[in-house]
């Protein structure tokens, strides 16, 4: 089979791959995007049915196209996928769907890479890995081996009807865990929610969404995680028009909050005695954002409505004052566990020198330690916003600029080469 050649091969056509293609197109860099499934597939088939964006439509988008929705609405996941398809059509992105990249290796003794795919072999001077920040579901080693329990990761959860009758333990209280727990409780399930360290910004404060606040306060642009926050998740939701994640409210509505899941032993799950500390940490994060917002309003003399009720906390629910430290799963009627415990990445197909000894991508702002290999869409690639829709677009621009600059060096010809090239061109008559 003939080998197809291009300058830059982008692997993956989620938001990161589409953004890459837009910037490469603007810079006239010949490229092809290979996507094993459909454009923005993860939004279609790897998220639960009722998921809506965590940020409002005016915010969670690329600069070049608005959602066909109220700017303050939280659009549904299918609409997000449709948006990226429409976006790709807008500039005729050279995306080939249904093509899986199996192996990328550096060419020996000549530049570029050989890329083996389900649709033949490609050669490219550069490759951009845009295969996602959240690729492989992680289920911690404490998960019990117990055939009586249905255990799934949040990436496999679709809706309450998918689970057998009975109570559910949801492990992990980031945005996925809290939204799934709330949906199950609303569907009439008894729910236990295992809560770790989290941030929980107010959905909105003094008339502005938290996405706006994090933007004007410079938090989306933070270049690195604050030390000690590596295991802190963020609990936000756009469900039902958007609401603040308030763990006390969830508990008063019927969810039993528990601390971090510690171990399973003979059908009994134990929890760390850290629930109160985790809730207090989340409260402190919530109040700190209100303080920062108030200070910003005062400093800039903004006319935004006062909202003193935002500082009122509900009384502590019983599960917070007297935390459950052990639960006999059968006695509590728990038939399912949902692990909302995050994701990792899988680059086994990318067989180049771009990883550290733990297998993590080694890069500076997406430019990897293997010349010609780039990453886009990874957490904290350049800033806190890097995995999000609006952030990845800016990161893709930086990488496309780097590629265009490298092409300029590669195209340079010295005086002798220029003379030779001129002599080879037949003179015009
Ligand atoms: C539950 C959830 C909710 C989220 N909500 C929001 C939100 O509201 N707002 C927001 O800004 N962000 C949100 N995010 C974060 C982020 O926007 C998404 O994770 C987004 O899918 C990341 O886009 P991506 O293009 O980087 O990666 P992905 O969407 O993962 O795209 C990677 C693509 O690469 C393809 N691929 C992988 N391997 C190969 C291969 N070997 N060959 C060919 N193709 C391959 C995959 O099929 C996939 O289509 C959310 C994330 C999750 C998990």
TrEMBL record:
Task: Write down the EC number.
Answer: 1.14.13.-
Q: Which Gene3D superfamilies does this UniProt record tie to the protein?
A: FAD/NAD(P)-binding domain
Q: Which domain of life is it from?
A: Bacteria
GO molecular-function terms, A-Z: monooxygenase activity
Q: Keywords on this record?
A: Monooxygenase, Oxidoreductase
Its name, as the record gives it, is Flavin-containing monooxygenase
């Amino acid at each position: 089979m003939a080998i197809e050649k291009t300058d830059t091969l982008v692997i993956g056509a989620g938001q990161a791959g589409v953004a890459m293609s837009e910037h490469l197109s603007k810079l006239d860099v010949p490229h092809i995007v290979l996507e094993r499934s459909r454009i923005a597939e993860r939004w279609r088939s790897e998220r639960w049915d009722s998921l809506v964006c965590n940020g409002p439509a005016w915010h969670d988008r690329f600069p070049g196209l608005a959602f066909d929705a109220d700017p303050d609405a939280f659009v549904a996941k299918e609409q997000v996928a449709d948006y990226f398809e429409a976006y790709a059509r807008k500039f005729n992105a050279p995306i080939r769907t249904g093509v899986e990249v199996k192996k990328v290796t550096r060419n020996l003794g000549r530049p570029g890479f050989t890329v083996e795919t389900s649709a033949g072999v490609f050669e490219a001077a550069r490759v951009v890995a845009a295969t996602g920040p959240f690729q492989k579901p992680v289920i911690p080693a404490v998960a019990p081996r117990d055939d009586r329990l249905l255990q799934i990761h949040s990436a496999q959860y679709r809706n309450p009807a998918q689970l057998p009758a009975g109570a559910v333990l949801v492990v992990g209280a980031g945005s996925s865990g809290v939204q799934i727990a709330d949906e199950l409780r609303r569907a009439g399930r008894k729910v236990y929610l295992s809560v770790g360290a989290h941030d929980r910004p107010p959905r909105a404060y003094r008339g502005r969404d938290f996405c706006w606040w994090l933007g004007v306060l410079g938090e989306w642009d933070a270049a690195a995680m604050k030390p000690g926050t590596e295991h802190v998740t963020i609990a936000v939701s756009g469900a039902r028009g958007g609401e603040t994640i308030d763990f006390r409210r969830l508990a008063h509505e019927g969810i039993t909050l528990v601390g971090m899941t510690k171990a399973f032993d003979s059908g009994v799950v134990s929890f760390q005695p850290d629930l109160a500390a985790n809730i207090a940490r989340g409260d402190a994060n919530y109040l700190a954002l209100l303080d920062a917002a108030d200070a910003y309003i005062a400093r800039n003399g903004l006319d935004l409505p006062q909202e003193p009720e935002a500082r009122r906390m509900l009384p502590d629910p019983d599960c917070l004052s007297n935390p459950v430290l052990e639960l006999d799963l059968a006695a509590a009627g728990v038939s399912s566990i949902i692990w909302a415990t995050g994701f990792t990445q899988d680059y086994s197909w990318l067989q180049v020198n771009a990883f550290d000894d733990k297998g993590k991508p080694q890069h500076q702002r997406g430019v990897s330690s293997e010349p010609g290999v780039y990453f886009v869409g990874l957490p904290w690639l350049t800033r806190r916003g890097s995995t999000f829709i609006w952030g990845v677009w800016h990161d893709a621009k930086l990488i496309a600029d780097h590629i265009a600059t490298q092409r300029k060096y590669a195209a340079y010809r010295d005086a002798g080469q220029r003379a030779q090239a001129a002599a080879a061109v037949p003179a015009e008559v």
